[in-house]
Amino acid sequence: MSQMNRRRALQLLAALGTTGLAAACGTDDTETPTPGTPIKIGLIRPENGDGKTIGIDIENGFQLFLAMNGQQLGGHPTTVVTVDEGDNAKSGQAAVDNLLGQNVLAMTGVVNSTVMSGIRDAVEKARVPLIGSNASPPSLQSVVYIWRTSYVLDEPGRALGSYLRRTLPTGSRLAIVAPEGTASQDVINGFRDGFGTDDPRIIGDPILTTANPTPGDDEFGAQISEALSRQPEGIFCFYSGTAGEQFIRQLRRSRWFGDIYAPGFLTEGNILADLRSTLVNADESLKAGTIQTALNYSADLNNNANRVFASAYRKTYNVSPTTYAMASYDAAQVLDKAIRLAGAEPTPQQVNLALGKIGQIDSPRGPWQFNQPRTPQQKWYLRKVQFDGRLLSNVLINEIATLG
Q1: Residue pair 127/349 in contact by the 8 Å Cβ criterion
Q2: Which of 52, 125, 237, 323 is 20 to 30 Å from the Cα of 294, by its Cα?
Q3: Confidence band for 75, pLDDT divided at 50, 70 and 90
Q4: For residue 250, what are the CA distances in angstroms to 28, 232, 282, 333?
């Protein structure tokens, strides 16, 4: 982690004060136990490209947990070793080899699904646990040493699909637009499974656009025209970051103001501030059409764990936490519990065994636990883009599904 990010995380010590830290750590201990032997944890994230922003979030979330817990996991002073995952299987393999060469007790992170699939065999062979905090392709099955604190990639589509199946009126017309690639296919498959593969409200086959993470101002024009020729009242899409921003801009510029439905990645992060002029009229009201998204987290969830986490995150980084930061915070929390169970001199194999015994996690997203495939059994929430005060935000509407 950069020295600047580390300093920002440590600001929490002053920002929360002694009382705040005690609440955050959830302990009433009056004596500080003797620290165990120092350990190293490897954090894998992209340093460049479209995934860099997510990489920053997962690094911030993990470091925040450490700052709130005396820079320890399971009672052991902890050093985080960060490496660049790149954007392919080869670069991911190099990152894992680097960390194994430094004798890390466990690994976490990974943003890119291609990287995650590519390092699977190396992680299993090394028998060092990896707590994935973002990338989670459905094809990652029958693993022993890979656990995930995020989601399985078909789940956000499945949650939203099942909700819309129940709520969209008979005779509605819904088009599907997404970039080419296996991740899109996973999301689309989940959505159609949840909605109903033969439901007549879905009009035509999915329309696929370029997978360019930084598309130009007119890059989606032909596909948007094709979608609008079907006269949809709503569009289900799967984009994030710059591509998501461009898709919404180009869709609204085409003078279509119907409802947009998507996994929450579409509006996660700072994208809503950048889209304000596109979505808001001069009189400070939203233009016609809603944007509704499904995600496993919302920064305004009203539970004690989230109040502590979101408050500390905002004080430390001056932004609201994303699902990426939350999942990495939970990865640190999971490791904290497992390492404590593994004893005074933990080995990677002992930590991996302990991961299966930690039970329910008191998470900012709400309570969850690992299921048999080592992914979370968790709630999914519907969020709607609307004003929260003067800020355009992803406002929590209600719980729509429990998956996993």
Answers
A1: yes
A2: 52
A3: very high
A4: 54, 16, 19, 41
CA distances from 315 to 67, 156, 163, 320, 356 (A): 13, 29, 35, 9, 33
DSSP for 336-396 reads: HHHHHHH-SS--HHHHHHHHTT---B--TT--BEE-TTSSEEEEEEEEEEEEETTEEEEEE
The HSE-up count of residue 236 (CA atoms within 13 Å, CB side) is 33
- Other Cβ atoms less than 10 A from the Cβ of 367: the count is 14
18-27 contacts, C-beta under 8 A, 24 or more apart: 20/312, 21/68, 23/308, 24/68, 24/308, 24/312, 25/68, 25/69, 26/362
Burial (Cβ within 10 Å: 0-12, 13-18, ≥19) of residue 125: exposed
The residue with tokens 């539970």 is 303
Contact 279, 392 (CB under 8 A): yes
Q: What is the mean pLDDT of residues 364-385?
A: 96
Angle (nearest 5°) at CA 291 between 209 and 380? 95
pLDDT at 281: 84
pTM of the model: 0.89
CA 126 to chain centre: 26
Token pair of 314 as six digits = 């905002």
Residues in the chain: 404
Q: What is the CA radius of gyration of the chain?
A: 21
